[in-house]
Amino acid sequence: MSIDIIYEDNYLLAVNKSPNIPVTPNNPGDKNLTDRLNAFLADRGDIYKAHPCHRLDRETSGVTLFAKGKKAQKAMMAVFERHEIQKFYIALVRGSLAKADGDIMTPINGKTAHTEYHVIAQREGYAIVHIRLHTGRTNQIRIHFASIGHPLLGETKFAYRRDFNIKFRRTALHCETLEFRSPFTMQDVII
To answer: Which residue of 118, 143, 174, 184 sits 20 to 30 Å from the alpha carbon of 135, by its own alpha carbon?
Structure first.
């Protein structure tokens, strides 16, 4: 697997993650993005280790942010914990949504969860949706769209893949953009 670095500064780097690879190992010896990125950086001659600042599901593709060293990771994870980062996704969801724009506010595991969406295009049997996460609960997008009767194409955890007329080999979700103020440079960053 090649490493597609799409952003890099003195403290952070972002990779365009391919689908079907975990960010970190689930089991010892698992092939994962973090180990592959660190091998790539070592070959490049870098002396630091990259540490993930957040995680995407194995099947989800897109922007994945890493910190250069543990100290930078701690500072960046604090940005995530304070919800000072905006996360945008593109998804393919089953069916035709009743509203072109909406907010899904269904709590997840007793905690507030807020997903905002805008339908980009409607196709036969599915919609292309732009999503902004206001909270970051585990599987939030997948849970929220399944809860309103429009699960993501390829979904297997919160819907049955066999129920889909349109076949998709993985969960149809892509992390498109991350926006935040760098805690290191105090500059706005859009990846």
So the answer is: 184
